[in-house]
Amino acid sequence: MTAADDTSSQTPGLRATIVITGLLLAAAAHYTWTSYALPITVGYDTRGHLEYIATLVDQHRLPHPLEAWSTFHPPLYYLLGSVVSLPGRPAWNALALRSIGALAMLAAGLVSFRLVLRLRGSLAVASIASALVLFVPCSQFAATMVGNEALGAGLAALALPSLVTLQSNPRHLRAAGFAGLMAGLALATKFTGLFVAVACVVPFCRLDWDRRMLGSLLLCALVGASVAAPVYVRNLVLTGSPIPMTRELEPVKAVEDLFTLRERRVWDYLWFDPGCLLRPSAFQVAGSPTATNTLNPAMTNIWGLTYASVWYDAHKHRLSGRFHRDGVLWGPLLAGLGLVPTALVLAGFVLALRDFLRRRGRTPEAPFVVMASVALLSFIAFTWRVPTVAAVKASYMLPLVVLAAVFFARALAGLNARACRALLWSSAAAAMSSAVVFAPGLVFPLEEATPNSIPARVAIKGFPSGLEQIGQELQGAAPGRWMENVRAASAPDGHVRWRLEAYPLADMNPSAAAAWCMYVGERMGVHLPERPWVVLIWHRGKLAASCTEGLPLDDVPTGTS
């Protein structure tokens, strides 16, 4: 069934309303408990995201795109985060900041349900597809961590029903305006908003042009550009690139170099390593009793690592190292259960692509086929250019989560009832198992959900008169007094152009600590391993000064985070 065949299917009945309401309530309860139970620092690059929000809250300004770890990201998520944050209320902030992503992922689950019903799915198929969208580990992690990925996926999801409407009627002004608005907001949240922006063009790629269709296209483009263009113009003015990145700048480069196994090879993209099913972790190495700093060699395989990051904690953000080892069966269990729904998604994409080519783009799923193709090509190009394990995350393709639900339903549409029922039960087991395994405290103990410690970070106001002077002041300061010295050396203009970081070497893994010591020693001539702290001053991605300081964590002055 297609949208053109039966528009009445767009309005779900009472049973459908009850089912999706129950799913959303269950997911909301799961996300709320996770947000409450886990420390706010758990998640991909959460420290950088928190620093971005803190700059907005404390200094009332947008940071320079290359000022810190994550400041190259578009600002929408961080602006919303600054609105809901309350200074001095960490417990509230943990829930409030995570609620942005949680609500966005709930919206994606709802859109998935409605679109599957609208296009070609039964109530059972729509229910399981939405459950997968809501509870697959990749979605759970994005929904319950501080970061912009879930919001970007939710905004992209909200654009998709309008794209289906435009595909059947490209003269629909309201659908065009709404699709443009959501695409613009997605672009103002994360660079992956490009995927849905390209999809917005597809409904207008036809020959029966008239003035109304042109007006619809212009409205879509103007609304989207009015929202997103200021972000990219600002980036271009400040950095010379509309899409700046900090990966080639320190300290990001030094950290990511630790996660590079080797340069990429074409073969890495042309097969699937079964070892990624047995050990779905970048840190789980055969014969190693616990996770070490030796990376899993199977993770040179791009699709294996991508799959592992969909169905398990491949990058060790939610589970401590002792659960990234042989003998822990939850990883292989989830990876095995995920094979059926993943195969159905891929099969549905192939079928939708076949229909797209046969009918020359005149299918209801045509915008989805183009969007998925652009995303896959972008992911291949990005991972080829950045050969680190950290770059291969399924969450970078999270805007495709609703498309995955539609393709899942497309694959099931041509099967007989018995096969469809068996595959649905298997997929339901995968969704339910994912929800159970990653509910904090249910399978894994809560204390094991905090694998990383956060460094002390201090913003230095003003532009110091001399790097040598401030370095000497820090070097000679008594424990607990270097903040006063930094303030005394600050200029009065109030603009933060410098950042000081105090890293406890004892809390870093040995390879990371050795890398920092080697790097700082080469740049500054300072021997670091003898002391517990290393203090580094960074200016827009470049190391400016450093020293060591025997400063206990409890004595870190007020003002650090």
Task: Annotate the secondary structure layout.
Layout: H1 14-37, H2 46-59, H3 76-84, H4 90-119, H5 123-135, H6 137-143, H7 149-168, H8 173-187, H9 194-199, H10 211-239, H11 252-257, H12 275-278, H13 302-311, H14 330-337, H15 339-358, H16 366-385, H17 401-413, H18 417-437, E1 456-461, H19 467-476, H20 482-488, E2 496-504, H21 510-524, E3 533-539, E4 542-548
Antiparallel strand pairs: 1-2, 2-3, 3-4
Structure description:
- With 561 residues, this protein is mainly alpha-helical.
- Helix content is 54%, strand content 5%.
- It is built from 21 helices and four strands.
- It is globular.
- The relative contact order is 0.11.
Mean pLDDT: 80
Helix/sheet category: mainly alpha
Distance between the termini: 54 Å
The dominant shape is globular
Biggest sheet record: 4 strands, antiparallel
Strand content: 5-15%
Using the CA coordinates, give the radius of gyration: 25 Å
Count of alpha/pi helices: 21
Unreliable segments of 5+ consecutive residues: 1-10, 448-514, 519-534, 538-561
Q: How many beta-strand elements? A: 4
Strand order of the largest sheet: 1-2-3-4
User: Secondary-structure element order, as H and E?
Assistant: HHHHHHHHHHHHHHHHHHEHHEHEE
Helix content: 40-55%
